[in-house]
Hints:
By secondary structure, this protein is of the alpha+beta class. Helices cover 41% and strands 20% of the residues. The strands form two sheets. Strands 1-2-11-10-7-8 form a six-stranded antiparallel beta sheet, covered by helices on one side. The N and C termini lie far apart (63 Å).
Amino acid sequence: xxxxxxPLRRALSLGLPTAWGALAITYKLxxxxxxxxxxxxxxxxxxxxxxxxxxLILHMRQAxxxxxxxxxxxxxxxxxxxxxPPPPRVDGLSVAAAQLSADRGASVGGDLYEVIATEHGVRxxxxxxxxxxxxxxxxxxxxxGSFREAAHDEHDLGRVLRRLERALERHLRERARxxxxxTVAEEFVTVLVLEIREDGELHVLNCGHxxxxxxxxxxxxxxxxxxxxxxxxxxxLPVDLSPMPCGQLLQGESVVLFTDGAEDARDTRGRFFSxxxxxxxxxxxxxxxxxxILRAVLTALLRHAxxxxxxxxxxxxxxxxxxxxxxxxxxxxxxxxxxxxxPTTHR
Length: 347
């Protein structure tokens, strides 16, 4: 069926312009009116050639629109394979994720995220590749492929991040070899790797990425405030990659990961979008699900940036729906204090 349609479509794409051109030439050579110099003759001749030109332009436009739609379908299918939607529940955690493109016509972006249940705990990656289009999608594919393997293979979270760094280096070397481009040397990726252990303990490694927000009851705060490591790409990672402990994710609490496009979105007056304020409003009425939090963020963001975000936006919400482990004694309800380690950027 498709083998018949394709030659037919090609024949039409070539035949219709040829027919329009033949019509114009036939009129000019054979029609007596075309050889007259009167005003009426010139008007009719102009109208004929105008109709022929308009027909050619419309035909070319339709052909380009078909090609563009096909390219978008292919790009969207490729990205849906690379950036798979996470399941709604992973090892007792409720998961909700979404991505918004800065270009309404674009299907390919540079944001990446993944949630994987492993024997070491639930491991999460959120990243933002510099740029858009197919080159950015290639980088996303390289990093996600590496993370999906390393998350299971590596016991230490620092080694997972090290694998991502090596995957990016290999990918950029191959790009520079196959398609020499000066921008390859400027490529970088912000990445945050998060581990949620069975008891809810949170451990994070952050390379230039915005810190997630922790939602506990009706309070919203940054998961940590230490200086992150540099983004992957421009500088090598330090020798010591000790994950930062960030307290516990207790039952019913949520952690919200996002790319910087969320907080960089502006309204018509140039004001930045307040993600923390939106989250505070979302958790004002408890209980609230991960999907409700995500929906509230996207609705407020699109309302704030009426013309659309100027950068790609990805938001990932993880909510602890695990049942608390039974204990022999009474357990207080106070949250354990989050340590404040020194910034990990020191070599």
